[in-house]
Amino acid sequence: MGFLRPNLPVVDYAEWSRGTRSEKIRPMARHWAEVGFGTPAALHLFYVVKIVLYILAAWLIAVSTPGIDGVADVGSWWTEPIVFQKVVLFTLLFEVLGLGCGFGPLNNRFFPPMGSILYWLRPGTIRLPPWPGRVPLTAGTARTPFDALLYGVLLVLLVVALFSGGSGPIPELDTTVGVLPTWKIAAVLVVLAVLGLRDKVIFLAARGEVYATLAVTFLFTGVDMIVAAKIVFLVIWMGAAISKLNKHFPFVVSTMMSNNPVLRPKVVKRMFFERFPDDLRPGRPSRVLAHGGTVVEMCVPLVLFFSHGGWPTAIAATVMICFHLTILVAIPMGVPLEWNVFMIFGVLTLFVGHADLGLADANNPVALGLLFAVLAGVVILGNLFPRKVSFLPGMRYYAGNWDTTLWCITPSAEAKIRAGIITVAAMPAAQLERYYGSKEAAQIPLYLGYAFRAFNTHGRALFTLAHRAMAGRDESDYTITDGERICSTALGWNFGDGHMHNEQLIAALQQRCEFEPGEVRVVLLDAQPIHTQIQRYRLVDAATGEFESGTVRVADMVSRQPWDDDLPVYPAQ
Fold first, then answer.
1. Structure pTM?
2. Average pLDDT in the 74-79 region?
3. Are 319 and 300 contacting, i.e. CB atoms less than 8 angstroms apart?
4. Hey, how many other C-beta atoms are within 10 angstroms of the C-beta on 181?
5. Residue 1 scores a pLDDT above 60
6. What is the pLDDT of residue 429?
7. Given its phi and psi angles, is residue 216 left (phi above 0), alpha (psi -120 to 50 degrees) or beta?
8. Which residues contact 466 (CB under 8 A, 6 or more apart)?
């Protein structure tokens, strides 16, 4: 892997380009298994620098608080409740600006490396309300000046809160600085809620299920605020662990570890697969890491929550810090890097710094119970009905099981998209061509992206269903594009959530671009409900609507290789 140049597979381009899609993916998959995406070391360093700047900015914001003195005197203020509050709000700001998850080249964002603020301050861009038919004053898909203003107000409110002083001494929390004024927290939550009802993408991009929920705990008083925040962390960990009780997660682990920049030797990366180069299903190390990690994420947080100091807390905290560091150093696709840094900070400040505070110290256990019930209820609903609940509030992080789409687009449709929507980023293929210098050179990273998708179990189903989506037409007329990339271009943010590029986005694009029948065909694959072993699919023509639906079986996905695109399909009768 070079410092500035990517490590791409070497193929006889003339011969390789004559192969079928399956044949083209095969050498890409083998390369991925040994090397990963081949990202230049300079890009990994870029993300490391970004993490350092995030930490430095949070640090300086903390010490700007009246009553908290000494940049280097961390021991005197690291457990202050207002510091935790400000880190939460700063991270929310960081994410909603577009600087966190989904930022940069490792999320296929090259020019520019972010969207978010560049879209959401601009009237006319596409917005996707979650319940336009049920919530008054939210219908429509065009961002209005009001929407842009509301987003700007959110940013201002967050900045104001970050540079506010505390409320004064709170003896039960052993603080003389106090906490942020309640009205400032409430104002942020109200504006974010209204924004979320107008555009679900902004709420998801803000990682509202983490930071907005933690902001809700700031409305509690005294000890209850700390205990409520601990409950949020507990549900995040255990909810994520529950969602990984599936057959998909080992595939995520093998794919992530082969792309890990710390694990350099090819022989080590090959170990994560069953039998390189012919059987690239997860090997024993991948399965052990997957199931072992699930046990850790399920059980250790309980020790953290119910122990109140001493060796049990110290050991549990160390394990959870190592857990998040393992994810962090892998620099996974989607780059949820600052989120892992934040979770480590939360372990330290909440469970170590306030280890003595627990349920027995709470003043309002009913409210705390209600908070837990709501959060756990969303997780349960998300696992039972994934089509209805985004994988983010459903806490199904990196479980390998989320709604996905694959878009089949003709050149004429691509031209209509460029002309029909307001965007600051080119279509994904055009960005790759610009970055790699030519259309031919861009084909290699494009197919490496296909290989990444195919390493995940749902990729086998998506590429199989793509044949059905283009049935009766010349497949060479289409460019196959991951729905996330369309979402990135059209909405300004993406993070693996098919709820943002389903029929709602298809309809919004059709309204603006007026595609002809056959110009855009989309494969939509729902996530697997936790209690079944099937996944439902829909095939949609942007101009004429859904023309096929049915199911695929998880057992068929996990038994195939990344280049297999011939899964059994069961159309609805």
1. 0.96
2. 94
3. yes
4. 14
5. no
6. 78
7. alpha
8. 406, 408, 475, 480, 523, 565
Q: What's the rounded Cα separation, in Å, for the pair 329 and 195?
A: 34
Unique residue bearing structure tokens 């791409």: 8
Q: Work out the percent of the chain whose per-residue pLDDT is above 70.
A: 100
From CA 181, how far away is CA 40, in angstroms rounded? Answer: 45
130 neighbors 195 (Cβ within 8 angstroms) = no
> Which phi and psi (to 5°) does residue 65 adopt?
-75, 130
**Residues in Cβ contact with 308 at an 8 Å cutoff, skipping those fewer than 6 apart:** 355, 356, 357, 358
Give, rounded to a whole angstrom, the gap between the first and last alpha carbons of the chain: 50
**Which H helix or E strand runs over 409?**
strand 404-409
Answer whether 339's CB lies under 8 Å from 214's CB: no
Contacts of 461 (CB under 8 A, 6+ apart): 525, 535, 537, 552, 557, 567
- Total residues found in the chain within this entry: 573
- The token duo for 290 is 């997957």
Residue 331: its pLDDT value, please? 87
CA–CA separation, 94 and 338 (whole Å): 9
**What DSSP assignment string belongs to 499-511?**
GGSSHHHHHHHHH
Q: What is the DSSP string of 284-343?
A: HHHHHHHHHHHHHHHHHHHHHHH--SHHHHHHHHHHHHHHHHHHHHH--TT--HHHHHHH
Q: Average pLDDT, whole number, for the chain?
A: 95
Distance of CA 435 to the CA centre of its chain: 24
State the amino acid at position 463 in one-letter form. F
Residue 396 has pLDDT above 80, yes or no: yes
Give the pLDDT band (50/70/90) at residue 38: confident
Structure tokens at 7: 């490590």
Residue written as token pair 């429509």: 140
